[in-house]
Known about the structure:
Blueprint: E1 4-12, H1 23-36, E2 40-41, E3 46-49, E4 62-71, H2 75-89, E5 100-105, H3 110-121, H4 126-136, E6 139-142, H5 148-156, E7 165-172, H6 185-194, E8 198-199, E9 202-203, E10 208-209, E11 219-225, H7 228-237, E12 244-252, E13 260-262, E14 274-288, E15 292-298, E16 302-307, H8 314-318, E17 326-333, E18 343-353, E19 357-360, E20 372-373, E21 380-381, E22 388-389, E23 393-396, E24 404-406, E25 437-438
Parallel strand pairs: 3-12, 13-14, 16-18
Antiparallel strand pairs: 1-4, 1-5, 2-4, 3-4, 5-6, 7-11, 7-12, 8-11, 9-10, 12-25, 14-15, 14-17, 15-16, 17-18, 18-24, 19-23, 20-21, 21-22
Helix pairs in contact: 1-2, 3-5, 4-5
Amino acid sequence: MDSMTLVHLGIDSTDSLTEGMCTTYLGAVLAGRALHAGAVFVDYPNLIRLNPNIPYKTRGNGAVVLRLEVPDSQVQTIVEYAEETVEKLAVFSDPQANPGIAVLTGKVPDLLHHFYERALHRLLTVEEAYTTAEKVGAVLKGYKNKRGVIGALAGVGEPLLHDHTYELLVYRKRENWGRERHVNGESIKKMDKTIEDAFFNYDYEENTVCIAPHTVCPVLAGIRGESAESVLKGFSMADLGEETEEYVIYRTNQHTSFHFEKVTAVGEIEDYSSVIVEGTVSGNPVIIRGGHVFFELENRGVIRCAAFEPTKRFRDIVRRLRVGDTVRAYGGCNRGGENRVKTINLERLDVLTVTHHVYSNPVCPMCGKSMSSEGKGKGFQCKRCKTRKQEKELTEIGREISPGSYEPPPSAWRHLYKMLGRTRTNQGSSPFIENWIKIKDSQ
Ligand code: ATP
């Protein structure tokens, strides 16, 4: 009799923002086919999010990984299924879709996990993926410019041994792809309040449903939570506004904040990384057209921090900062350069200390008016009575901000962001629950 081989299949970059499809759907179809062929899943399908700051992503930079036990003689058949499914469903006409498949057998080596960590924090090349694959004995298949092999291989490298969450993705019937969604908000609020372990369902601040995308893709909704049970229960309670036939539960690194790296100085911040950095506010916030708020942060180097318009009321906190306050900023960075200011796109802000005094032009002791500067180092003079003073004065200011942790409303959260309300860390994989997948065999 055949012995069994552990096979990891990673897939990425199959979809198009304008023409639809979703790598998770392709993964679900492939999972259905593999189950039908007798493969034994050793884990829920994995949805692995990678660096959210890279320029190539279509949406959330996610790769899909299936981990299966397959009779030795069937390994090649499963790999062929993966290729056939990609070739049938990927949107090859979109320049952004450059599908990649990675196949590894056996245990995930540390070197591959290291590649995943780099794919979470840096911008990598296709060549690096091929070099790593050769070292760990993985086989890659890349289509078009082959970029998808980066995410496919990196996804395989994250077996989610530490923190993880779950997302149940519900797919629309084909005839509804591209049509407007009509998810019933009241049912989602009720579900959110009833199921403690399901999260990120409803944004009460912005009064909007968070489980449904606005794209033309096959996903109708994604229900997120701490356990497979919670997301399946959430699905049973949600009125999604149309008949559905297919869904799958993914185990994922979403909402773990694995994307953040702590740095001790602004000068250490790498292009495209997501960082946690402490520093002193060195430039008061400015609001620009479009409603974006920026301030400068200093810690052995200066960097701009931004609360963009979609972060809504979070901007009210950011705009109350003043020079001298100390903060811990969390967020993703773009690439700095000659014509580009390197900026942290804030995902969270911890206000550590708030200053209650500022140095300002002295007030004339005779007239009570603010004195004018006479030029750099030349002191100050009262315009009216000509009284002079040499130094600025420390004055007390009222503040409308206190130390604490602040975050944008849910609709602005990134997939990887661990929200303040999520205090758990889930260890290891949990056993399969019944009905973790429902997918038509005929695809
Ligand atoms: P979706 O979330 O809908 O699946 P997406 O945002 O994942 O879409 P992709 O079409 O997968 O978008 O595009 C991301 C591309 O970037 C893929 O080709 C992937 O292999 C590649 N990629 C992922 N991480 C990195 C990285 N760190 N450096 C360079 N390329 C990367």
